[in-house]
């Protein structure tokens, strides 16, 4: 038996064990999950008005490039601030194809880092990315919250993209090495924020407010993030104690409430075969995915495996999982 076939068989056996474990855990545990909608995880202010383009080319740290605001907001163009950070981008990533197949890198960035409003794609399995595009296209993957532009655009792009374009983009992002860009901070109070259309930004000199039971994820340098710089960094404020609580859920399954994440996602949580990495992902993004799966808004093959896992998770459990996983190295 060759090594590839052996790997596939091992993966399938692991999945079968995981499915059995998940179903047994759910059967033994009373339904305790809450349907409380985590509105904080789906920030959306469609009437938010960004500042107009002043026509002056912008710059970011450690780059000689310059782009105008109009260029940066063009979804058929990728501001490539650091060309040495990645290999040449395929056409689907750097320009897309009008009218509906927007450039993948315009939202997910040239290095696949994404932001709190969407997914980090760097290093994800190519087969997984291809399957998610197919799920967006078929309607198997949608959303539980408001019709935010990141998800509605993804659905439109998936429907417009050709198979060749999808495979080219998936191969490109899969070959990239994910880099750490999130600092998780436990706290009771956070700087006051506003929603800038689809993500949170701090309000300078506005004081502090209670965090409560939510995650607030903000760019460290708002201008750098808005310029779509792949090197932008983020701070995720999480409730005190949530990282340790999340670690216990991830590693033990919480006495049958869920399953240890390593069962499917690998011992380092960086993915196995077609199963994606969850270490070092955006905490608020992870919460959205957990909630979307539990509400049946992700119905693809991989999501079906997750349904028993998330069935008994509470709002606070999802916060704890996002906090711990976001604190890990990707």
Write the layout of secondary structure elements.
Layout: H1 3-28, H2 69-72, H3 91-94, H4 104-108, H5 126-138, H6 149-160, H7 163-174, E1 182-186, E2 189-191, E3 193-196, E4 199-202, E5 208-210, E6 216-219, H8 222-226, E7 234-238, H9 242-252, H10 262-265, H11 283-294, H12 301-310, H13 315-326
Parallel strand pairs: 1-7
Antiparallel strand pairs: 2-5, 3-4, 6-7
Helix pairs in contact: 1-12, 5-6, 5-7, 9-13, 11-12, 11-13
Signal peptide: 1-27
Protein name: Cytochrome c553
InterPro entries: Cyt_c-like_dom, Cyt_c-like_dom_sf, Cytochrome_c_Oxidase_Subunit
Structure write-up:
This protein is mainly alpha-helical and 330 residues long. The chain is 39% helix and 8% strand. The chain is built from 13 helices and 7 strands. The protein has helices at residues 3-28, 69-72, 91-94, 104-108, 126-138, 149-160, 163-174, 222-226, 242-252, 262-265, 283-294, 301-310, 315-326; strands at 182-186, 189-191, 193-196, 199-202, 208-210, 216-219, 234-238. The strands form 3 sheets. It has a 3-stranded mixed beta sheet. It has a two-stranded antiparallel sheet with strand order 2-5.
């Amino acid at each position: 038996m060759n090594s590839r076939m052996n790997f596939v068989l091992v993966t399938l056996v692991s999945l079968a064990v995981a499915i059995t474990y998940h179903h047994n855990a759910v059967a033994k545990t009373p339904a305790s999950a809450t349907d409380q909608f985590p509105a904080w995880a789906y920030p959306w202010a469609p009437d938010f008005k960004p500042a107009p383009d002043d026509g002056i080319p912008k710059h970011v740290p450690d780059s000689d490039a310059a782009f105008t605001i109009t260029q940066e907001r063009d979804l058929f163009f990728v501001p490539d601030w650091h060309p040495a950070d990645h290999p040449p981008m395929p056409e689907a990533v750097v320009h897309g194809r009008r009218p509906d197949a927007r450039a993948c890198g315009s939202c997910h960035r040239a290095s696949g880092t994404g932001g709190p409003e969407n997914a980090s794609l760097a290093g994800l399995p190519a087969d997984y990315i291809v399957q998610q595009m197919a799920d967006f296209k078929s309607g198997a993957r949608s959303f539980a919250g408001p019709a935010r532009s990141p998800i509605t655009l993804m659905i439109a792009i998936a429907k417009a993209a050709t198979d060749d374009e999808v495979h080219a983009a998936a191969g490109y992002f899969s070959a990239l090495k994910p880099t750490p860009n999130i600092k998780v901070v436990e706290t009771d109070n956070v700087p006051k924020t506003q929603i800038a259309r689809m993500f949170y930004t701090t309000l300078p000199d506005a004081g502090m407010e209670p965090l409560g039971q939510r995650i607030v994820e903000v760019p460290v340098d708002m201008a750098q993030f808005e310029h779509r710089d792949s090197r932008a960094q983020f701070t995720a404020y999480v409730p005190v104690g949530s990282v340790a609580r999340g670690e216990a859920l991830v590693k033990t399954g919480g006495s049958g409430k869920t399953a240890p994440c390593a069962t499917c996602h690998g011992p380092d949580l960086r993915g196995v075969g077609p199963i994606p990495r969850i270490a070092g992902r955006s905490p608020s993004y992870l919460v959205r995915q957990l909630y979307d799966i539990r509400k049946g808004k992700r119905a693809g093959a991989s999501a079906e495996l997750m349904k028993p896992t998330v069935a008994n998770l509470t709002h606070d459990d999802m916060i704890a999982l996002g906090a711990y996983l976001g604190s890990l190295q990707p």
